[in-house]
Amino acid sequence: MSSAVLVARGLSKDFTSGGQRVPVLSGLSLCVRPGESLAVVGRSGSGKSTLLNLLCGLQAPKEGLITVAGESFRRPRKSSERSDDDARWAELRRRSIGVVFQEANLMPALSLVDNVRLRAHLAGHATGGERGWLERLGVGAEADRYPDQVSGGQAQRAALAMVFAMAPALILADEPTGSLDRHTADAVADCLFAMQGDSGCALVLATHDSELAARCDHLLDLSALDPAGTE
Ligand SMILES: Nc1ncnc2c1ncn2[C@@H]1O[C@H](COP(=O)(O)OP(=O)(O)OP(=O)(O)O)[C@@H](O)[C@H]1O
Ligand SMILES: [Mg+2]
């Protein structure tokens, strides 16, 4: 079996609110291999977005080990360990981790095709295939429009084209269809799973949508873990 793209061991995360320590994640472990998908589900506030932020280095855990595409990050850090974590996370987000949010995060001053071209360029890939990605995602006809000239579903397809154009090892998607109607959400999800299958990348998908979660290979229910012990 191929080695994992993403491994997390013993992840814990707290926030401080009104002077009180609020545990969000505690002792969480997971492993996702190339081509696999993991749905992260749980009630609102259970820590889905927090987990995705930890897995792309936008937040640091209190404790735990995260390995993405062969790069390892540990908290608390031993004095002998490398302290260039921020630079290594930034490089991973540039080349290896594609992040998709509920609302497509396109640059408003660039057309859809230029958004995709910029993302591929930043990831170090030769440009030229941008229109092909948009066509595969069903928005080839909208390639020269600007983000404010397309629908939410079309913008989300362009956001997926950006992510696939960077050929990531791992995609982290936080409610990627949460702002779309059922029909459009299903169509965007079809594209996401088809292209993930073709590319062989790993996918971690945070969602409230049980139909979407059921399409993933594995399920992680954060409500069932409940670090505060209130359930
Ligand atoms: N920066 C922060 N400071 C303090 N508390 C935070 C911070 N970010 C998140 N939290 C808290 O951590 C908990 C988990 O939040 P998170 O956004 O990860 O939940 P979620 O599962 O993604 O929820 P939703 O389904 O509503 O998106 C919540 O109780 C939230 O209030
Ligand atoms: Mg969230």
From TrEMBL:
Superkingdom of origin organism: Bacteria
Q: Which SMART domains match?
A: AAA
Asked if the Swiss-Prot or TrEMBL record annotates the protein with the keyword Disulfide bond, the reply is no
Stretches assigned to the ABC transporter domain? 6-228
One matching Pfam family = ABC_tran
- The answer to whether keyword Transcription applies is no
UniProt keyword list: ATP-binding, Nucleotide-binding
An MF annotation (GO) of this entry: ATP hydrolysis activity
* Gene Ontology, cellular component aspect: plasma membrane
Q: Which SUPFAM superfamilies match?
A: P-loop containing nucleoside triphosphate hydrolases
Kindly give the PROSITE patterns that the UniProt entry links to this protein. Answer: ABC_TRANSPORTER_1, ABC_TRANSPORTER_2
Q: What is this protein called?
A: ABC transporter
Q: What is the lineage of its organism?
A: Bacteria, Pseudomonadati, Pseudomonadota, Gammaproteobacteria, Pseudomonadales
